[in-house]
Each structure stands twice: as C-alpha cells, then as structure tokens.
Write the structure tokens for this entry.
Amino acid sequence: MDEKIRGMVESIQRGVPPKIPLKGIVGVLVGIALLILIFTAYYQVEPNETGVVLRFGRFARAAGPGPHFKIPFGVERVYLVKTGYQFKVEFGFRTDRAGVQTSYSDEDFTRESNMLTGDQNIATVTWVVQYRIQNARDYLFHVRDVPGTIRDVAEATMRAAAGDMSFNEVIRLKRQEIELSVKERMKEVLDLYACGVDVNLVQLQDVHPPTPVKDSFDEVNRARQEMDQAVNQAYQEYNKIIYRVKGEAEQAVKEAEGTRIERINRAQGDAARFNQLLAEYRRAPEVTRQRLFLETMNQVLPRLRQVYVVDDSLKNMMPLLDFRQGPAEKGGAQ
C-alpha cells in the first residue's frame, strides 16, 4: 500500500495523472450516494410541530413529533407546521421587543385602529387576537395567505361590532361583549374558509377617543364624575334623613300603639274594678260607702298642705291642721 501511494505521489510530481483504481471510485460514489440518501430521507419533527408530507406535490400523510424517514431525492417533501404554538396578531400597535421593558413601534397604525361607531363617532381601538393552527393540512393548502386572512377577518369583524354600538358602549359599557362577539364571528368565517386555525382569544387592549379630541373627552369625563359624585352625596344625605324620619315615625307609631293598649287595659281594669265595687255596694251599701270614703281620704289628705275643719257646733276658733310640718316639728311645737 505504501508503494502505491509513493508511486502516485511521484507521478503527480512528474506531471503524470495518477491511476485511480475503479473500486475506489465506486466506493466514493457509493459513500456520496449514501450521504445524500440519509440527508434527503431523514427528517425530525419537534414536539410543538406537525410534519406534512407531500409526494410529488400531493398530500401523503401527517407526521407527529419524533424522527421520521421519507422517500429521498425530492420524491417526498416535508413542511413543518407549528401546531402547538400560540400565535398573536396585534392591531393598532406593534411590539418591537417583549420582556421586562417592552418597547413598541413608533409607526402610525391609526388606519386600522380608528373605527366609526354606530352613533357616527370615531373611536381608537387597539386589540390582540391569539390563535392556534388546528389542522396543518388545511392551513397549508386551503387558503394561500392564512395570516393575512386572519388579519383581514379580525379587522372586518371588529369594525362591524363597533359599528353596531354607540361610542360610550365601545369605550366603557360593552367591551367584554365586543370581545366575545368578534371571537365567535371570526371562528365562523375562518371555519367557512377552512383555514385550519382556532381562535383562542380576542382582547381589547385600549379603547379611547382619537388623539386630537382626547383632552376634551377627558374633561367631559371629569365633569361627569364630579356630577356623579355630587349626585351620590345628595342621595346619601337623602337616605340618611329619610331613614331617620322613617325611624322616628315608626317609633312614634309604636309608642302610640303602646299607649293605646295601656289605656285600653287600664279602662278594662277600672271597669272590672267598678263592677266588683258595685256588687259589693249592692250587698252592703253603708259599709261600702264608708270604706270608699276612708280610702279616698287616705289618698287625698297626704297631698294637702292645710286642712280646715268646719263644724257648726263649735263656738271657738276653727281648728287648723297643718300638714306642712313633720312629726318631729309637731312634737316640738307642743
């Protein structure tokens, strides 16, 4: 072997082409063919991808994640589609760099964000659409430009939703309803086109009036907020006074009801007592009369300051019973 190599080197030095054996040429050609076969027959599908295999330009099969082989030399071709990835489409703005300090594009996207509402006003709407590729075959072959179609359908459905509502509804009142309606409408249209995608989310980022009138709109909002605050304070005072007056009225009614019940009970008790006295009086009139007189005097006399005793049979001065002095004072005066 060393002699053959030495002879080839000497031939090259003398300017004579070396003689290469036929077996060597065949081996080299076979090696090159094997390398081409391996590189054109083997392919790898990542976990978030689906491989679509075409045979002479016609769909043959779909391949899942992992290593695979195909017919080499261009007979079969593979297209890798990211079916496990969630795509995001931005409207009215563009994100240049996402991260801790997100930066956005300085370009003007008002042509796609300015929309005419149902009450003939203009609102600036920025939103995001997120979708996944659901069917790789439909995504590749049914529509020529699926991302562009998604963008056109999203913009058309959002403008239709804004055109069916008033400016205040778009700005504040019905944002969630707009998101749901746009999402459902986009699904219907994209399924009709057989785009092979599934819309996962439609989210409004910012909805505000156009920049030239934004300051005036903010002034109007502040005035409305001040008006609402004043109205709420007035309602608070109103409720405070009304509830207090209602409470006082209910208390007065309950007190009157209690007084009524008390007087009815007292009158019924007095009537029952009178009936009992009447029965006693009918049985012993004189004794009952005397007892009533003594009981009455026992109640009346302690409240009197002076008592004058009038007696026609007395010849001297009229005696005076002074009840203003206590028993000790009376004893000392005696």
User: Anything to note?
Assistant: The chain has a mean pLDDT of 82.
